[in-house]
Amino acid sequence: MAEPIAPGYLVDDDPVSLGLYAGVLERHGLAGIIACQDSREVLPRLRQAPASVMILDLGMPHLSGAELLPLLRGEFPQIPVIVATATDDLDTAVACMRSGAFDYLTKPVEPSRMWSAVRNALEMGELQREVQRLGRQVTSRELQHPEAFARIVTCSERLKSVFRYLEAVAGSPRPILITGESGTGKELVARAIHELSGRRGSFVAVNAAGLDDTVLSDSLFGHEKGAYTGAEQVRKGLVEQASGGTLFLDEIADLEPGSQTKLLRLLQEGEYYPLGSDRVQLSRARVVAATNADLEDRQSKGSFRKDLFYRLMTHWVALPPLRERPEDLPLLVEHFVREAAVCFGKTTPEIPPDLFALLQTYSFPGNVRELQSLVFDALGRLEGRSLPLDAFRVDLSARGVQAPPQETHNPEVARRFSFGEPFPTLREVEAFLFQEALKRAQGNQSLAARMLGINQSTLSRRLKAGDGESG
Fold first, then answer.
1. Are residues 367 and 462 in the same domain?
2. What is the pLDDT at residue 127?
3. pLDDT tens sequence across 239-254
4. Strands lying side by side in the sheet with 103-106
């Protein structure tokens, strides 16, 4: 699960400054602030409780900030230190930066400037932790928290590599973008991210498809009483409901321009305005977005904001379609058969061996969700002890059975299509197609013939003729 964020340290002999800094950080959701007026106590306290960020004054008695800074960088180089001082001097600023300061602020510090510096420091620290986590994941092939992905049925190594990446970035406060075709399990993955993040708030999901700017703004940000006709009481939005948790925005590509602008502000500044209010609200929700559309194409055409696209894709995972992980078909069918049997109150039936060869001839444009509907429909027609294969044949025939697009498995034929090579003859191409169809149909000539669009007798005759010629 996500590592807890260490507290922020404030080091200044002026109690007024400490109170001001603490107020700014707490308003932006940074909890567990540790204030220290005596700089001599800093190193011993850090050895007991590490810091995520530090704001350090320079002009302090006993041990000045200029003296403490190199000691901090030597013993705690991972802590970003922001110097805040009344000394507005270029040479001092340069000396601090050379000693390892992350930023240099001149008092009196504007609250927005201070929070900007702290936020940048926290993001840099999170990036460093992510690099460390990713490094650990690269050296390990095992999932650290497989229970978070228990609802996703798979044995696909490609999908498990996605899971390992998510384990590394789930604790980040920055958004995650999930792309993939409809039915690939984007919401299940979003829920796994929420569980891995260790966030104590709720997982709140909203589908942006078909919602105009006003409706979506009202849903996300809420409204004040009297914001519009019919708004008779204050309404809290989903952003507030997801405070401390995860806000999952599905079908993000369908956002209208006005909603894109508001979402960008939410992601960049962590701020939003309820409808009818001029008081800014702070968001403590982590955003996970999903889409089955090509956002790169949409932003290049101007229908999706480029800055929002780049902000969303800080962490990005693309879920593979079912046709690219055929090894999952047996697991998924068995899972859905058991699930459907419970739903219909029937005994779990046997699965005919030819079913998997039949399913591998179909490309599943609806992915896992479509496979689930096929299994449920077939089990609803169950009369005997075995899952009816004919039910699948009828459904697939109605949908138009087609083989999934894959690269050729015959390197010799592929080579013959290369520039400068002798062009293959029609007979060679035909022989390759027959071999490939039989391979995908696992030797079942009836299924292979259906894939080729010919009768089984024709396929059998051609195969015998080919054997005769090769003999």
1. no
2. 73
3. 999 999 999 999 999 9
4. 34-36, 8-11, 53-56, 81-85, 103-106
